[in-house]
Write a structure and sequence with these properties.
heterodimer; A: about 290 residues; mainly alpha; MetI-like fold; about 80% helix; B: about 300 residues; 2 domains; 13 helices; globular
Chain lengths: ~290, ~300
């Protein structure tokens, strides 16, 4: 009897130790993961002398002067910001409309033809951008859309369709079918039934694809470096590389630039993180 | 109930009946916008690229090109410089794939139960994924010089040829392990707890439980993570472009393609290199996903 209760205590003890060590490990990993964020934030609020004298410690007198300097003196930053916004928003909205429509059909019909279409759409994930880069560049050049927002929007939408359809189709399979059937009995045509009934039901997955697509398009370097050849058409990632290479001595400014480029995405992610996390998990298992 | 009758109707109608035309025609309209853009941006250029790779096309501003057959391909496959870029890409992919998956799986095993603490940690772990690859590479170049170098008194791995691939792989692992973690968490949550209880009743040790229940049932998550990261790894471009632009040891195949087409005016050769890259990527990813699908069936 005594022995038994001693054993129980022992295993409880073990469990507790295990739990605490887990938390410690997790917190250490979390701190390591956050180091780059700490560095960027820290460097961007120090002035020039402090960053050379004492890089890693928190600043004694934090300043927002760096941000103001970048905004007011660096033309490339404002151009980059403007282009990134003008490119990202239409691309993301267009993707939401067209891929939710296509995914709806792909998820609802299981005939061979639709399975084939699904595979055709998904195959895009496996085609590296470099393989279509040259012909795409030429086609866009020939239509006069090189270095324009419109050209970039069309190209980026096309390149993003595969991954968007992968995420959304998995989700639609879990949306109950009865509702749109009911709507079609009520005399809506299918198009109306889709926009009235199915599209609103897809809100969670559309939130997911909104954040993911924003992330991919806003951060895109690969497509931008090929299609946006003029200085006036550059997006933030392009401007960022140039700025960092030119300003290795003005690290505080470079990091202020970097921080401001990242902030909209970080805010979007943190405010919608529930949808992102659950959406990726849902798409992964069913897709 | 309604769904069932609908299914029956689909079967009884002949292929070209009015009903079928209306339904499938309507379906086509739903898919059409996505399909048109996808065909125009991805599929057509993909096929357009093949003939270019069979020419000696040089500068993309000129129209001069002569058909040379498979010469570009034989040149590339015997060119040590090109094959080295493949080696670099493979090395990067191997470290990145293993690192991100092992760490992602480890984190998922700790964090898979939903609790407030775990949810916060998951949010933080996924945060690097929101940073651009270019941004990540640049910030890490300072993590290396300012923290790692001064702490351990070593050179930044991005500054020396033998370590630059590893250095970039670490950046990629940092950025994408949160993504792997989420997929593994989804996999772990889908395993019914009764399985573990039954195993415990039968006296299985925790190691046995992991080996015989967790790992086999996680195979779909492995398939998804490994195929996707394999593709991402083989396509790596942004990291070396941002922090190791002029280092021979960091040159990946995608950079080789870019440089030949837009830098060195060897468009035909560059396009051939792009197609070789694509073929390798297709073969590797299908092989890997086939292998895992097979395991899935066996488990």
């Amino acid at each position: 009897m005594k022995n038994d209760s001693f054993n129980l205590n022992n295993s409880e003890m073990k469990e507790l130790i295990l739990k605490i060590s887990k938390i410690v490990v997790v917190i250490i990993i979390m701190l390591v993961v956050l180091i780059p964020f700490y560095i960027s934030f820290n460097y961007s609020i120090k002035d020039h002398t402090e960053i050379t004298n004492n890089r890693l410690a928190l600043p004694e007198n934090p300043t927002i002067q760096n941000f103001i300097t970048v905004i007011s003196e660096n033309e490339q930053f404002l151009i980059g910001y403007k282009n990134s916004i003008l490119n990202t928003i239409p691309t993301v909205l267009l993707l939401m409309v067209i891929t939710s429509m296509a995914s709806y059909v792909l998820a609802r019909y299981s005939a061979k033809f639709y399975q084939l279409m699904y595979l055709v759409f998904i195959a895009g994930i496996l085609i590296p951008f470099q393989c279509i880069m040259l012909p795409l560049y030429l086609n866009i050049y020939n239509t006069g859309l090189i270095s324009t927002n419109l050209g970039f929007i069309i190209a980026r939408t096309g390149l993003q369709i595969s991954i968007s359809i992968l995420v959304v189709t998995g989700f639609v399979k879990s949306v109950p079918r009865d509702m749109e059937e009911a709507a079609s009995i009520d005399g809506c045509n299918r198009f109306q039934a889709f926009w009235k009934i199915v599209f609103p039901l897809m809100k969670p997955v559309n939130a997911t694809q909104l954040v993911l697509n924003t992330l991919f398009v806003w951060n895109d370097y690969n497509t931008a470096v090929v299609l946006l050849r003029s200085p006036e058409s550059r997006t933030l990632p392009l401007a960022q590389i140039i700025y960092f290479n030119e300003n290795t001595s003005e690290l505080n400014l470079a990091f202020a630039f970097f921080g401001m480029a990242m902030i909209p995405i970080l805010i979007l992610y943190l405010s919608m993180q529930k949808h992102v996390v659950s959406g990726i998990m849902a798409g992964a298992v069913k897709g | 109930m309604v769904a069932k009758t609908r299914k029956k109707q689909e079967h009884t109608h002949p292929v070209f009946s009015r009903y079928n035309l209306r339904i499938h025609g309507g379906n086509m309209l739903f898919m059409l916008p996505a399909l048109i853009i996808y065909i125009a941006v991805v599929l057509i250029p993909f096929f357009q690229g093949i003939p270019y790779s069979l020419t000696n096309w040089k500068s993309i501003i000129s129209d001069k090109m002569i058909f040379v057959g498979l010469k570009n391909y034989t040149t590339l496959l015997t060119n040590k410089y090109f094959l080295d870029t493949f080696l670099n890409t493979f090395k990067f992919t191997a470290i990145y794939l293993l690192g991100a998956n092992i760490l992602g799986l480890f984190l998922a095993m700790i964090l898979w139960r939903s609790s407030r603490f775990n949810n916060i940690v998951r949010t933080v772990m996924f945060m690097p994924f929101t940073v651009s690859l270019v941004g990540a590479a640049i910030v890490w170049s300072y993590v290396y010089t300012d923290i790692i170098s001064s702490l351990f008194e070593v050179m930044s791995p991005l500054g020396c040829s033998s370590q630059v691939i590893g250095g970039m792989a670490v950046i990629a692992i940092w950025r994408d392990m949160g993504y792997c973690m989420l997929i593994y968490i989804a996999g772990l949550q889908s395993i019914p707890t009764e399985y573990y209880e039954a195993a415990r009743v039968d006296g299985a040790s925790s190691f046995q439980r992991i080996k015989h229940i967790t790992l086999p049932l996680l195979i779909p998550a492995f398939t998804s993570n490994i195929t996707l990261l394999l593709a991402w790894g083989l396509k790596v471009f942004d990291y070396p472009m941002a922090v190791a632009r002029n280092m021979e040891a960091a040159k990946t195949t995608t950079m080789y393609v870019y440089d030949n087409i837009f830098g060195f005016s060897k468009a035909g050769l560059g396009q051939a290199a792009a197609i070789i890259t694509t073929v390798v990527l297709l073969i590797l990813t299908t092989a890997v996903s086939r292998m895992f699908r097979k395991l899935e069936v066996e488990a």
